[in-house]
Amino acid sequence: MNGELTFAPLDNPLKILDLGAGSGACANIYPHAEVIAADIVPLPERPFPPNVKYQHCDVLVTLPFVDSSFDVVHMRLLMYHLPPAEIPSVIQRISRILKPQGWLIIEDFGRHIIGHTGSPVQEKIEAIYTGMLQRKGLDTKVGESLGAFLQDADAFSEINVKKAEMILTTDPEFLARISPGERALANAVRSTSIKVVETLMNISEDMRSAGVTPDIKKAWLEERQEPKLKTTTDIWFTWAQKRQTSIVL
């Protein structure tokens, strides 16, 4: 992404809402902006930039902010956790608190293709995980539908959609053939997936009850180091500009 956090043409935003807060990187990029890190749980115990403020928030219930108050609202890998039937209401709430011509920026997962060269443990964990999400009524490929959700909201004058198809592997020859940007993004997603398996699955009763055992987890981590293993994950980037409010004379 050429060193940028988003494809959206942001011009010195002064107030940013990060829903499902991440690392606080946007606060470093825009040090003069007030950044609200909103999440359903408190932020982790780690240093954050001084212009970041935490706000408890459940997007499925309400967004406790003043109308037309944010230049940017950002969501990364949050829609993935929302029931599809609730997403239109969430987008409407967000459009209400965006300033006219403000930007809504969303990135989320699309399809997962696994087992290009045979990866039995990867396939097993993927089947367990996607099955668990589907039983909860969640869409494991929600990124593919983001553009349609934004179009249906009828609140944006400009909607942009870009798909990034990443092949995750440790194969040095393959990684040398792709662009530095593609390589960095794929390695970041691969590293994050490993952290999820290493940490979150230790405490996830859902995954344990679905059949993930310590032996399966160990085998998955070993398999992920195999250079011949290649899996594909799509990430969809969307950035939409809120319509300019008409002035009635």
From TrEMBL:
Record keyword Ribonucleoprotein present: no
Entries under InterPro entries matching the protein: SAM-dependent_MTases_sf (IPR029063)
Annotated SUPFAM superfamilies: S-adenosyl-L-methionine-dependent methyltransferases (SSF53335)
Keyword Endoplasmic reticulum set for record: no
Lineage top rank: taxon: Eukaryota
Pfam families named among the record's database cross-references: Methyltransf_23
GO biological process, one term: methylation
Coiled coil: none
Keywords associated with the record: Methyltransferase, Transferase
GO molecular function: methyltransferase activity
PANTHER family, sorted: METHYLTRANSFERASE, RHODANESE DOMAIN-CONTAINING PROTEIN
Name under which the protein is recorded: S-adenosyl-L-methionine-dependent methyltransferase
Species per Swiss-Prot/TrEMBL record: Gymnopilus junonius (Spectacular rustgill mushroom)
